[in-house]
Write a structure and sequence with these properties.
Blueprint: H1 5-39, H2 42-49, H3 54-61, H4 65-77, E1 82-83, E2 90-91, H5 97-100, H6 109-116, H7 118-127, H8 139-159, H9 165-171, E3 174-178, H10 184-192, E4 197-202, H11 205-218, E5 223-227, E6 239-245, H12 254-264, E7 265-276, H13 290-307, H14 319-328, E8 345-351, H15 365-368
Parallel strand pairs: 3-4, 3-6, 4-5, 6-7
Antiparallel strand pairs: 1-2, 7-8
Length: 370
């Protein structure tokens, strides 16, 4: 058998491709153990101890030594932890402390959720009816942690850029959060601006229960949480600010939802939107989270939207379609921003503008999105 140069090059590429897939498998498995370590607070425990063996960590945490031994070996083999050669104790590199003991590790909790919903998504690929949000394991608890450490900081960062908004909140404003989830964003704002009044709405009963529990724990008196479908309408209370996180792109009737936001706002009110950001796939900048963002759209955002009534014809995940819809719904054009405090989200702060009597919102949804 004669081996040509092309054959040898093809063999090399095949081996490199196999190596890449093996690396992907190893990284995914290690990612699940990073999630486990974050949930068990192991990284913070190692940081407190300075250097620790499995026995040290077991005594400190009350966890079983055998499991900790395997976990430490994995974290060392993938470069997450370092180990002393002489005594075998593990430690965190100084540069890793703000990452492994901060909100970044909460992102790894999403891996367990994706793994847990693989079979329902597999079935949805076949029958096309989507996956209901209630089938996603621990989604509310995962979102609770992510909201407290990422979305709350990002929202405050954006509001600081809005002329006069901080002053209005300090004096006493009315704020509505549609899709409030576990309420962490409103809880942060309510503590920061005690003179303002905050209302959180969500269709998910489990999320609202968690929000109310968080409210009682923090004894916050200037906010209220309610289970409600925003598409059923909102009171025209002249809100100074409406916040909507992950609502518009997943809504079966996005134009009607934006109409309700527009009607609920005061004449000089503002709309703060947060959506899952699109992967950066142009230019020379490599988006390290591109694969995860695509996977999240494929396994979470897309199936949930379909299960809640959205069809492919009304999907507005692309940014240009979203911008056209916002303009036609009575909101001034504004740039979307990616913030370091929220690696998965895109944020947009928009001014409300008065609509003409013949509003395009009365047009069919399909015409709005073309």
């Amino acid at each position: 058998m004669t081996f040509t140069t092309e054959t040898r090059v093809s063999d090399v590429r095949t081996e490199l491709y196999r190596d890449r897939l093996h690396s992907m498998l190893s990284e995914a498995a290690a990612g699940l153990l990073v999630s486990l370590g974050s949930q068990l607070d192991l990284f913070r425990s190692i940081s407190q101890l300075g250097k620790a063996s499995a026995e040290d960590l077991a005594i400190h945490t009350g966890l079983h030594e055998q499991g900790l031994t395997s976990w430490l070996d994995c974290m060392h083999s993938t470069g997450i932890l370092e180990r002393e050669a002489d005594c075998g104790r593990y430690f965190l590199p100084d540069y890793s402390l703000p990452i492994l003991t901060g909100p970044d590790t909460l992102l790894f909790s999403q891996l367990a959720m994706l793994a847990g919903v693989e079979q329902p998504v597999h079935d949805a690929f076949r029958h096309g009816s989507g996956v209901h949000p209630t089938l996603y394991p621990r989604q509310e608890l995962i979102s609770d942690g992510l909201e407290s450490d990422t979305e709350s900081k990002a929202a405050l960062e954006l509001l600081n850029l809005a002329p006069g908004m901080i002053r209005r909140l300090e004096c006493g404003a009315m704020v509505l959060h549609a899709g409030c989830g576990s309420g962490q964003v409103l809880l942060a704002l309510a503590r920061r601006f005690p003179r303002s009044r905050f209302i959180g709405l969500d269709i998910n009963e489990t999320a609202i229960r968690l929000a109310r529990r968080n409210q009682l724990r923090l004894n916050s008196c200037n906010l209220h949480f309610e289970r409600r479908n925003v598409l059923q309408g909102l009171e025209r209370q002249g809100y100074d600010l409406v916040i909507a996180t992950g609502m518009v792109s997943a809504c079966p009737e996005p134009a009607h939802m934006l109409m309700h936001f527009h009607d609920a706002l005061a004449t000089d009110g503002m709309l703060l939107l947060r959506e899952l950001r699109p992967p950066l796939e142009t230019g020379h900048t490599q988006d390290r989270l591109a694969g995860f963002l695509h996977a999240f759209e494929c396994m979470v955002s897309g199936p949930q939207a379909i299960a809640m009534g959205q069809t492919a014809a009304t999907h507005i995940g692309d940014r240009s379609t979203m911008e056209r819809l916002l303009l036609r719904s009575g909101f001034a054009s504004s740039e979307w921003q990616e913030l370091s405090s929220d690696p998965l989200g895109s944020w947009c702060l928009l001014d409300r503008v008065e609509m003409l009597a013949s509003s395009p919102l009365s047009f069919p949804e399909s015409l709005l999105l073309t």
